[in-house]
Write a structure and sequence with these properties.
By secondary structure, the protein is of the alpha+beta class. It contains 4 helices and 5 strands, in the order αβααββαββ. Strand 2 and strand 3 form a beta hairpin.
Length: about 120
């Protein structure tokens, strides 16, 4: 009888530990997702810089260089940096960013003096 009671108590303790640990792990995931942009289709320039491990200024330089190249040359070869502007705020398309990065990397795109050397 005493060993059955010990088994029941042990089982309850293990079960409670599993439930509590799952809540602790879940709350930790929610806190990390609060500052993450995962799942959102648009990112700010700051979020994009963090995502790409670049500075905000470097992301802005890429955008400016591509726009200046388009204006100067009159055309642009390849994918341009995927962004839209809403009320003077730039938002980057997360899904298209991967495609742009692959294409820019494969073509060894070089941003020099505010223009693109391809």
């Amino acid at each position: 009888m005493k060993s059955s009671l010990n088994i029941i108590i042990g089982t309850l303790i293990i079960g409670a530990s599993i439930v509590i640990s799952s809540f602790v792990l879940r709350s930790g995931d929610n806190q990390s997702n609060a500052t993450s942009t995962d799942g959102h289709p648009l990112m700010t320039v700051e979020e994009t810089a963090t995502y790409l491990h670049l500075s905000k200024e470097e992301v802005e330089y890429i955008i400016t260089s591509e726009n200046r190249t388009l204006e100067t040359v009159g055309s642009f070869t390849g994918d341009m940096f995927p962004y839209i502007t809403i009320n003077d705020t730039i938002y980057v398309n997360r899904d298209a960013l991967g495609k742009w990065l692959a294409e820019a990397s494969n073509n060894r795109r070089d941003y020099v003096h505010g223009l693109i050397s391809q």
